[in-house]
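Weekly modeling sync, notes
Attendees: AB, CL, MP (scribe)

Item 1: holo prediction request
CL wants a bound-state model with zinc ion before deciding which constructs to order. AB pointed out that an apo prediction alone won't tell us much about the pocket. Agreed to run with the ligand included and paste results into these notes for async review.

Input as submitted:
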Amino acid sequence: MIPDLSHALWKEAIEHYYWDRLDRAYEIASTQGLGQMGAYLSWFRMIEAEWLTRRDGERLKVEPWLELEWSPGDVGYADMRPIGEAVRAACDEVAQRLGWTHGASTLVSILREEARAPWSIAADGYCVDMHPYEKICLPRYALEDRIDFRRVVRHEYAHVVTINLAAGTAPRWLSEAVSVLLEGGRDRATERAFRDGSAQWLDPDPLEKSFSAEDRSRVWLAYRQSGLIGGYLASLEGELRVGDLLRAHAEGSFWKRLGAGFLGATHTDVAMRRTYGRSVSQVFSEALAWLRSGRPVG
Ligand SMILES: [Zn+2]
């Protein structure tokens, strides 16, 4: 049952959540009257899952900037150092490929098995830009396969890099483009569907909205399209240049970016022109043409 709280109380719970004060967030979110709370269901599940892990959890400092959190009764490893090493190796790979120097404090939390976190929305994990640090939450089952685990960590840590390089201004589609690129792997069936038009290749605005669609297949397509755009950008001038694109979101004069904003351009429009000499919509249509011409196998 989901508590039926006033919006003010939910706001308070969510504020605590963003400071990773999970005890306070959970206390508020769970002790009120019960009822329908549709809009806050995902919030409740995130808070609950993360709090259960925190309550029974242990921590390991892997690097000054990197910490691991897990629930010993749940994870089943006597020694978590090899897992910490695997996380660090995956993060190192992302940093190297995007030209980023570690530094933003990052907490990787392996959520309790019974946690009903909104995996259906967030695929294999999720990353939250919290105040004390960036927090990556992964399901317990991500530990079952070593290769998959590193793939998931690369995806989520690429979000950490995107948040920091672009100073939080990158749109969701671009953030997922970078994360899916770094995650690696291909979905050939979906590529065929985009190629033959049975899956619609969206413009930037509808693509951005697709990430919050009710229809899960639509969300899946949004991830895949973004990943292909990431792949196309990397094919132009390599992955380090994709890092430059993110960096360009936060660079340049404030007044220039403000002026561009008045003209209806987004940070990404400005950054794309500076980095690749193209507009965002040009990149979208070129990426589809690249896919149709048979993207190189990589
Ligand atoms: Zn993602």
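Recorded for review: The chain has three domains: 1-55, 56-165, 172-292.
Action items: CL to compare against the apo run; MP to circulate these notes.
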